[in-house]
Amino acid sequence: MNAASPHIDPPLAMLIELTYRCPLRCPYCSNPLEMTAASGEMDTGQWLGVIEEAADMGVLQIHFSGGEPTVRQDLEDMVGRAEVLGIYTNLITSGVLIDQARLEGLAETLGQMGGPRIGPAMTNMMQAMPRSITLHALVLFSTGESIFAP
Amino acid sequence: MAAAVTIGEASVPHLPRGVRLKFDKPRDQWVLLAPERMFVLDDIALEIVKCCDGKASVAAIADDLSARFEAPRDTVAKDVIILLQDFAEKGVVAA
Predict the structure, then answer these.
(1) CA torsion, ordered A57, A58, A63, A67, to nearest 10 deg
(2) pLDDT of B79-91, one tens digit each?
(3) A27-36, A129-138, B12-21, B78-87 — most confident range
(4) Which of A65, A72, A89, B71 is the most exposed place for a label (fewest CB within 10 A)?
């Protein structure tokens, strides 16, 4: 160890991989699939504790990712806690597992909702898919484009 | 993609959905939080952004800041427009 340890600033943002479960097998994705079984994942209380600690530390943004974060039925609890603590929340989801009611609930709370980095084929699919569920908030990170006008 | 916006004296700027102004207590600074990014505001940028309430026009904001900080209105208006134009192009201010 160095005698004088370097000063490290607290992190501005935290990427949370809530789960490694995912219904999709996108070729570009480099995240592991089901590295741990659902029973081995951190539970709600543990994640809420992590979020509290992050807020104390000065984290300003949390990105909820996975896997597919919406397989966690307690996602809303975590997003809600982060928002209460004043943390800006981002959700990175394919959107394929959520219905309109859940989507609208999340969209109310979230800072923003984003899709994965999407290739042309997937973009076409996404453009066709969410119209039926009135997805207002889906933003493509790769292009910065909103698919739907609010 | 946000439509190209040209900020002028008549524009009425506001923070769009998904953009939030926040005091970052641990670092003692004001930040503008947006999807996947943030901007640290200096004192001048903060005063301008605080005026972006969706009611005041750029002209009114320039009048207000010029009076409050006793600065030449032309200079203030120019600075306000440059900053808001930059933020509009980054998608964190709408008008």
Answers:
(1) -10
(2) 999 999 999 999 8
(3) B78-87
(4) B71
Partners of residue B22 on adjacent β-strands: B31
Closest Cα in chain B, distance from residue A116 (Å): 13
Q: Cβ distance B90 to B1 under 8 Å?
A: no
Residue A25 lies in a domain: no
Number of domains in chain A: 1
Residue in chain B nearest A148 by alpha carbon: B1
Q: Which one has a higher pLDDT value, B1 or A57?
A: A57
Give the domain CATH number at A59.
3.20.20.70
Owning domain of residue A110: 13-19+43-140
Chain B, nearest residue to A83 by Cα = B20
Q: pTM for this one?
A: 0.75
**Chains A, B: CB pairs < 8 Å:** 41
A60–B20 CB contact, under 8 Å: no
Residues B55, B12 contacting (CB under 8 angstroms): yes
* B1 in contact with A, Cβ within 8 Å: yes
